[in-house]
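Posting for a labmate who doesn't have an account.
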Amino acid sequence: MGLLDTARLDVHIGSVSVCRQLDLHIDAGQHWCILGRNGSGKTTLLHTLAGLRKPDSGSVQLGGNPLHSLPRRTRAKGIGILLQDHIDAFPASVMETVLIGRHPYLGPLQWEGPDDVALARKALQAVELEPMADRNVATLSGGERRRLGIATLLVQDPGLLLLDEPTNHLDIHHQVHMLDLLTERSHAGDQAMLLVLHDLNLALRYCDHFLLLFGNGETRQGTADEVLTQDVLERLYGHPLQCLQAAQGPVWLPM
């Protein structure tokens, strides 16, 4: 068994069939990306894999165990998710927010200790937010809040990272810096990542496996060479594309 497996997974949202009979196997060290048009169900599938919603049929397993049967603390140590948007219901500082990532490792009524704070400071430094540690999260820009969400995941340190549009609100420098950081941490900790991205070229740069959602229940999965061909991509996005060769590899441009 891998870090995460699905067996004959069916997922629907409204009239959209997200996937039919999906068998997915994610191993440690792999970097997956879900690709598809708007409304094809990428976020819905990610939430299903995280255990935030039930599939219509089939199963999701984490480390060989049914996800729904695992205690929440065990799930949080195994899976971390970055949602598309953050909602901060209560006032909190940047440091207090990033320390939320340590909650799965604390006992009832246990406070964070010096080691937890040190991990949090290291994560804030990695995402270039350490000088803002005492600021209220409500004062952060969209990009700063995105980087704080990534820092919280680094502190949580789960085996599998599920990232829904991790480059939202980020400029080019921070897009590359955050994805470099996540990739390096994933390799160092023998973790896996599953990203939802709209930027096909960033996906090619950082991912080695791809899951394509066509919006009618049909899926394809495999490496870039196996599934990211011109005819498949043009059918996936419903738009003609042109492939150019660059120093980093192939670059796809809309016609």
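Reply:
Got it, the structure tokens are right above this. The chain has one domain: 4-91+158-254.
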